[in-house]
Amino acid sequence: MTSSPINTPALRATASPAPSSRSSVEKADAPTASIPTAYVSDKADDSSKLRTFLSILRKFIGVADIASVRFSLPAQLLEPIPNLEYWNYLDRPETFISIGDSNDALGRMLAVLRFWFTKDLKYVKGKPCKPYNSALGEFFRCNWEVEDNSPPVLGDAPKVSATGEISTEHRTVRVSYITEQTSHHPPVSAFWVDCPVKGISAYGFDQLSAKFTGTSVRVTPGAHNLGIFINLKHRDNEEYRLTHPAAQLAGMLRGSLSITVADICYITCPKSKTKVILHYLEEGWLGKAQNRVHGVVFHYDPDNDNTTKIKDIPEKDVLARLEGCWQDKVHYTLKDSKVHEIVWVMHQQRLTVLEQESQLLIDLNPLWPISKIIPPENQQLSTESRRFWHGVTDAIINKQYGQATRLKQELEERQREKATERKDQDFEWRPRFFTEALMTNGKPLLTEDGRMALQRLQEGNYHLEESANVGT
User: Whole-model pTM?
Assistant: First the structure.
């Protein structure tokens, strides 16, 4: 039996409690809810882990991209979660499904920004972690079910389905996700997010480049990672491109990992001729991280897009400004918003300051990542992440690190053997759910199997046949 992608309310998504670390018994024939262990795992042994990790990383000082080396870590240094399950941008899916609600182009861009600041909530609420390296052909799929209750950011924003025929307000909407490791050298995965009821999808390639500096790791998008692409079908296929900033993984010497961002990134929508420049600021005085970000939304010419810095944006093109902390609250100010007069009295001196009225875009404090709904264990394929790494995960959770390392090495050796077989037979492996391993425009395309898998996820049907063309 399949279920409808629109149901009565089941999840409150405006705020969510912190996840519990208490484990539950999972039935083999029932979908399971999952929150990555990075949000809830015990941090008591982090210092010991990091010292060991640091001693390994020191061997790679001067290596241009340690992410491409694909070195194997002992199991005790890994979190018990597959990379494809951990790495996604739907920590708060309700912000994603509301992007196309507003009838105002600026309102939609501000909704994109609201989604943007929730996509990395896992790093705000938890700790950075090292998941398993993905194997060629490994894939992960899941659903999220969230209430369509995000308030409008700006303008008229009716809560309706993509056809405009069904009200989705305060109803639970299903979002489906599939990702596949499409390349091993370089390590690249393709992903696709789909919510047909709301007429919105997202897609792209994930690839990281990392360099160890001696005290921290600088992480940048890889050459094939051109950002997240979001499409609004019911808005005449309006497409947004969101590029990723570089980040710094620091705190290894003091035994407490943290992520800082000091870079510029961009969001563009050629159809509405709207662009955002976001500037993540350097750490504060004496190295205290402020996690500040400011940005500008403005009109631009897609055929002559050469503005890369906020200071170069003509004032006449400015639509809104943003300011805040990407780990706390972010506000926006419209260009034509009301001006308030603020009077300060200091040392018997009267100081008058004119300040424009700002609006809250997002408050991350009450939010936690939403659980995924994962196919039942007995309906997962052999190349599906949870099943593929099942033995390693169980061993790590039970602190049987020697067993976990042995099982992990066996899986890695099997991958090498299969790669050798393909080379000897002059056989070209191809992804199952995506048409190509890599695309020069950064936009993956689904195969018929990919479209079918997403459609079945939307129906609550997890059945898939095993593929004869297995990479792992």
Answer: 0.87
